[in-house]
């Protein structure tokens, strides 16, 4: 098979092959662990490999060979209406383990399906009906049409905004339901969203510098940049999925399973809470919660969640969440951490910091990491734990 192994074609071939390999590995992992996010990341890796394929083949000389050229023209390698959607659903499954793909979500794929039908129409017209170039009489691949590239860019921006909205909802839910929110605020999710943003930035940059998307000689650096970025997302996503599936390293502690409609419920609850200044029995419930936290020291449980507290009180989580939000003017995470910080301060007052490390005191109080402890302490007291000791408890 003819393939010119030049510098440009070889570099892109390397990324192309690795993208296909990791697509297969992620699909296998998704099947073995029933991990939906791995399936979507696998699909993303495959689409990215297809995305760089035309330029890889172009640098390899395929477009100068009639048989190859005819084949390449009619394969819609660059699925610009599908890539953003796949990234979005990867983000949804990554952040919300209760998310379920429903019929209404199929609407997101309508533009991609329409483009595939368009590609099929072009093929049938040129190769089956007319037997000669009609749509391709200008000799340019329709994947690189300006309208398609611009529309694909706009879809990327739109779905990035949707991913950011999902992350914001996830963050709100997490801080209202678990006492270790800082530990489950996926570092990988933040890096993924940043990579998504960079992807858009390089597309805009190269589009402004050189809007001729089918100019093979001048697009290599864009496709190289894109390849490095998608390689990073794929490799890091695969590593994150391995860590999450085998240990606590991927997200420190497991996020509890919310009800299937958690995101929607959270939006409704927030509006309800804003419309209510207090509950009729708010003071009584505040006292019950304070008594339970102080007497049984529930805050010492590093994986304490809202449902643990509500079950001990014999009520539902919505009630407890509303009392904490309205009565203490805090979310659940900050509320529990406030008790943990006071517990650490009491130990410092008793001089235990002279015989134990600060981290040991933090662990005893219910914190699960040094960074979470330092961040929570500084947020509550405006100074770090060490600064607090130096200021108030110098030997």
- CATH domain fold name of the largest domain: Rhopdopsin 7-helix transmembrane proteins
The count of strands amounts to: 0
Domain module count: 2
Distance between the termini: 79 Å
Highest CATH level, the class of the largest domain = Mainly Alpha
Compute the CA-based radius of gyration.
27 Å
Low-confidence stretches: 245-277
Mean pLDDT: 83
**Biggest β-sheet: count, sense, barrel?**
none
Q: Can you tell me the CATH architecture of the largest domain?
A: Up-down Bundle
Please, could you describe this protein's structure?
This protein is mainly α and 395 residues long. It folds into 2 domains: 240 residues, Rhopdopsin 7-helix transmembrane proteins, CATH 1.20.1070; 117 residues, Orthogonal Bundle (Arc Repressor Mutant, subunit A). 69% of the residues lie in helices and 0% in strands. The chain is built from 17 helices and no strands. The longest helix has 32 residues.
